[in-house]
Write a structure and sequence with these properties.
The chain has 702 residues and is mainly alpha-helical. It is built from 35 helices and no strands. Among the domains are: 64 residues; 108 residues; 116 residues, Serine Threonine Protein Phosphatase 5, Tetratricopeptide repeat (Alpha Horseshoe), CATH 1.25.40.10. The chain is elongated.
Length: 702
């Protein structure tokens, strides 16, 4: 009994001891977990910058406390097994990369990271390169995450100098600005120094986005700080003027005047000077903030920095003034550009004695400036105000500027490019009324724009204005307008233009003439062709020929207007254009289609008479061809005029023209199968003889 009590007491003590040990283990584990939450490393929390990667591919592996001793022992066994498998995992990673199985390679890399180890340097760089080269979003995200992790843990021992810059370039080309900027900042933090071409492109793109512009400016300042600190060691990273302009553009995007002015002061410290674009951005920023007085002082500031105004600066300056609604200041600056450009030309001509010295286009208003000015005048002023500006510009330009380079030409071209053709026409009318010199090239540009939009009425009116102004259009311009009129079926306008073309003494009329005749033929308007031909037939520059008359005759016959065709034929002969085989063929086919076989007989008689008359005078007679002989013979057989048909056969045999007799035999049997020769003998013996001769010729027994 006593021994039994001793055993029970021992068991109670042992159970209390185990429970106390378990309670202590649990408290220690809870404390450890609380400390790990307060002092977690970079793998335990996802940084905000990389939030697009959630859920984190490198999420921290939690280690819950083992409830008992057996669990801890099994964990130790698993760890020892994992340590054995690491070499296998790296081998799997390399094989997967060799076979381009990127998903399997990624899984192997994650397993290695879960075991707290990195692959070899070669494998990591290959993994980053292959993932980035996959050209898909998951691959780029994985490449970025890998690069960030390695930069944080082993920046110099694990990554090659080319891997990260290549990844930056690929992310930048993919327009992934957030990860690209994060990667650049990680590079700077961990001792990598990206080349100017890499980081400046990213800053430039970010500077255009309002939410990203402040971050772009931070990156720029950080790089400037490193350049000043490390000097010649980081020359490849040193910003240039274009990079400073990108940073200034970021200031413009989110509207910080103070930071922009600070950038201007920093440039000389790094041995750089701004350019016209730099101060143009500053001008736009001042306009955005309504600081007109600072815009007016920019010229002096540029003198302090020894920067000369150029097109980019003036373009931004004009845009800034127009943004403030100050049309007068914008116009004055354009006139100032003209003065500086013309004075430089005059000085160069005086010094060199060369009257062909050209304008300095870097300080001469370009198309962009004129477009801005046109918009400003048409929104804030009137066409007359714009005309007054152009008159002032003409006084400055005098004889120093070619007519196609004047402010008037620039304004007209700007209106055309903006699609404001009516405004351009109105400005030209206003300038002509003021006696302004305008080059023919300016009119030609507007004329081509009208033609492009097929606005034939306006184009015709503009041609009249050009002639009234004493200018001469070339044949090509007339051809273009006439072609557009014919395409739009505005025949009246085309005739009027051709008439003006003749009156203006243009040397070459053939192209426009053919354009009109072809268009009328395609639109089946032979009556207009005849009227047009009557008008131009006496002009030797046109060179009307028999084929032109034949086209009209053919068109009339095709429409069944045989009387008009016959009148055209007579008109042609009256004007001493000798009809040829095609002239007669069109008429024969037309008469045959209308079953007017007697008219064919009359035409045959007329043709014989004309041929005999030509032979008597010793001139070249009409040449018969197979098609014409065939058409005459077929029509005469159908009409029953066998006397004339045999005359055609005799002419055919004389000319040794061979035809298909079976065809005429078939026509005879189909048309005259009920013809009784016995009855005809009493009425017309001669006709019977002709029928018998024809039947013998085609091989029919009598």
């Amino acid at each position: 009994m006593r021994e039994r009590l001793v055993q029970v007491c021992r068991s109670l003590l042992l159970s209390n001891y185990k429970s106390s040990i378990l309670w202590a283990w649990q408290n220690a584990s809870a404390l450890a977990n609380r400390r790990s939450c307060l002092c977690s490393d970079s793998n335990a929390k996802i940084p905000f910058t990389y939030s697009f990667l959630q859920p984190n591919v490198f999420a921290a592996v939690t280690h819950p406390p083992p409830p008992n001793l057996s669990v801890s022992l099994s964990a130790k066994n698993e760890q020892s097994e994992n340590k054995v498998d690491i070499s296998v995992l790296e081998e799997d990673l390399e094989i997967a990369l060799d076979e381009n199985r990127l998903n399997d390679a990624w899984k192997a890399f994650k397993l290695m990271r879960n075991n707290g180890v990195f692959p070899s340097k070669i494998s990591i760089n290959r993994l980053v390169k292959e993932l980035a080269s996959a050209n898909d979003l998951p691959g780029l995200k994985r490449a970025f995450a890998t690069a960030i992790l390695v930069l944080e843990k082993h920046p110099h021992s694990m990554l090659d100098m080319e891997s990260i810059p290549n990844l930056v370039s690929i992310l930048e080309r993919a327009k992934m600005l957030a990860p690209t900027s994060s990667l650049i900042r990680a590079m700077l933090k961990n001792g990598f120094r990206p080349h100017l071409n890499q980081w400046s492109r990213v800053v430039e793109q970010m500077s255009k986005i309002e939410t990203a512009a402040p971050l772009a400016l931070e990156i720029f300042w950080e790089i400037c700080h490193l350049v000043r600190k490390e000097g010649a060691l980081v020359d490849q990273m040193k910003p240039d003027t274009a990079a400073f302009n990108a940073a200034l553009n970021a200031c413009l995007t989110f509207g910080s005047v103070v930071k922009a002015e600070g950038l201007l002061k920093t440039m000389p410290v790094l041995g750089l000077t701004g350019d016209g674009r730099s101060f143009g951005i500053i001008a736009q920023l001042y306009a955005k903030k309504g600081l007109k007085e600072k815009i007016e002082r920019l010229d002096k500031v540029m003198n302090q920095y020894k920067v000369s105004p150029d097109q980019q600066f003036y373009s931004s300056l004009v845009s800034a003034y127009l943004g403030l609604g100050d049309l007068e200041s914008a116009s004055e600056n354009v006139l100032l550009m003209l003065k500086r450009a013309c004075s430089s030309v005059g000085r160069a001509r005086f010094e060199s004695g060369d009257e062909c010295s050209e304008l300095n286009t870097n300080v001469f208003p370009d198309e962009q400036i004129y477009c801005l000015l046109v918009k400003g005048y048409l929104e804030l002023g009137t066409v007359k105000d714009l005309a007054r500006f152009l008159i002032k510009a003409q006084d400055i330009e005098e004889q120093l500027v070619a007519l196609d380079q004047t402010a008037c030409a620039g304004i007209i071209h700007a209106c055309i490019n903006l699609g404001w053709l009516e405004k351009a026409h109105s400005i030209l009318d206003e300038m002509i009324a003021h006696g302004t010199r305008i080059g023919i090239g300016v009119f030609s540009s507007l004329l081509k724009a009208y033609c492009k939009d097929q606005r034939t009425a306006e184009a015709t009116q503009l041609v009249s204005n050009i002639n009234m102004a004493g200018l001469e259009l070339d044949a090509g311009s007339y051809d273009t307008v006439i072609d557009v009129c014919m395409t739009a079926q505005d025949f009246k306008a085309a005739f009027g233009l051709f008439r003006e073309m003749r009156e203006a003494g243009v040397g070459s009329l053939k192209t426009s003439y053919l354009t009109i005749m072809t268009g009328l033929t395609e639109n089946h308007r032979p009556e207009l062709m005849a009227a047009f031909l009557d008008e131009v037939v006496v002009d030797p520059r046109v060179g009307v020929g028999v084929h032109d008359w034949n086209s009209i005759i053919h068109s009339f016959c095709k429409l069944g207007r045989l009387e008009d065709a016959r009148r055209t034929f007579k008109r042609m002969a009256f004007l001493r254009f000798e009809p040829n085989a095609q002239s007669y063929l069109s008429l024969v086919n037309g008469y045959c289609a209308a079953e007017k076989y007697f008219s064919v007989l009359l035409l045959w008689a007329e043709m014989k008479k004309r041929m005999a008359h030509a032979q008597e005078r010793g001139i070249e007679a009409l040449t018969l061809n197979r098609d014409l002989i065939d058409a005459f013979l077929l029509a005469l057989v159908k009409g029953g005029f066998f006397d004339a048909a045999m005359e055609v056969v005799e002419k055919m045999q004389e000319l040794k023209i061979f035809v298909d007799k079976w065809r005429y035999k078939h026509v005879y049997l189909e048309t005259h199968k009920k013809l009784k020769l016995a009855r005809l003998k009493k009425k017309s013996f001669q006709k019977v003889q002709a029928i018998i001769a024809f039947k013998n010729w085609v091989g029919l027994s009598t």
